[in-house]
């Protein structure tokens, strides 16, 4: 390998990311209220094989062991999320002190092990009680979310100095309120546009609240981004379709945050979001983040399709294209992360970019107590190298976090896709570090 950790400089943030519902388990322990993922996954057919996150990796009980593992892997930053319904079982109102205690113990444990906690405020597990009132479709979510953010900063802001407001708003509004394939399983354009607008307001409002309560906090929020190319580059209709999909999946949330408004010019249907706009919203959608979290896994090829409403476009799956692909049917295409970084860097208002997620799901084989996941090692190496390429060209990227620490509940796909640096035996909850985990530890070893 022709590069090393030191090529990124001493201040580059190296980390690993997780999310509450995907690992914690203990879904109804110690006063926790149900979230939309708890109820969504109890319903048959929503999740592959009917699985759910009731127990997941039991991180709620095993966090000390897992934090020790992160430490052992030489990873300095741990990004995790807070389960809103552990703190507010009803979404608002009465605080569950046992929920607060859990995150206090977790944060203190990170600090005692010398890890820097970076916390995501919302990683998709809305309290079910708030969904009963419409969830993200109800504009009151801006007040509900503000109460939650305030409570987190007041309780944890003395020790946590890096905050991310939302995780991938495009995915939770698109999959959860348009396609209905993620919790809460709602469909349709009206639900989607309302949810999207309220999420866009919350990402900015959340930033303002953190800044007002914690002056020395570094504040960011995260976005999914897939590098897109037309399936047939010489066909105008594929190029136009690609531009529309780009506006929808890559630009719709970041541009209003940067004060540019929604990308209506490239995707006309977004003008219907005006229905949900109130006075001053345009201004309130903007907030000057300290950093932007970029989450990239793949590239997508886009083909014109008259049958798909609004975008007239469809994604051509990697498995149909004779290219290497993962358990998620995502193409392995390392330059995608480079292109994503270049694109984000071209927005003048972005001050710093952190790759808050990148990683891969491949099927693993456990043999003689070992997982030789060479494909995953190569994926990580090749992507990190592309991050370095961008950095050398002057891109303001200052961090890279692997998705994810350990195999976990991959939303609608259940436990099938394996993204972890660490294997979990879900019957015994035994952890085994994969070769990829050992490789990352070696790469990060400060003495090399
Ligand atoms: C994005 C999400 O933030 C995370 O929860 C998910 O598991 C990974 N990508 C992989 O799909």
Short description, anyone?
It is built from 15 helices and 15 strands. The protein is α/β, with parallel strands linked by helices and 448 residues long. The two termini are 14 Å apart.
Describe the structure.
With about 450 residues, the chain is an alpha/beta fold. The chain has a single domain, classed as Glycosidases (TIM Barrel, Alpha-Beta Barrel), CATH 3.20.20.80. It has 15 helices and 15 strands. The chain has helices at about 20-25, 35-40, 60-70, 85, 95-110, 130, 140-155, 170-175, 190-215, 235-250, 255, 280-285, 335-345, 375-390, 435-445; strands at about 15, 75-80, 115-120, 160-165, 220-225, 225-230, 290-295, 300-305, 315, 355-360, 365, 370, 395-405, 420-425, 430-435. The strands form four sheets. An eight-stranded parallel β-barrel has the order 1-2-3-4-5-7-10-13, surrounded by five helices. Strands 6-8-9 form a three-stranded mixed beta sheet. Strand 11 (about 365) and strand 12 form a beta hairpin. Helix 3 (about 60-70) packs parallel to helix 5, helix 8 (about 170-175) packs antiparallel against helix 9 and helix 13 (about 335-345) packs parallel to helix 14 (about 375-390). It is globular. The relative contact order is 0.14. The site of 1-deoxynojirimycin has 8 residues, from loops.
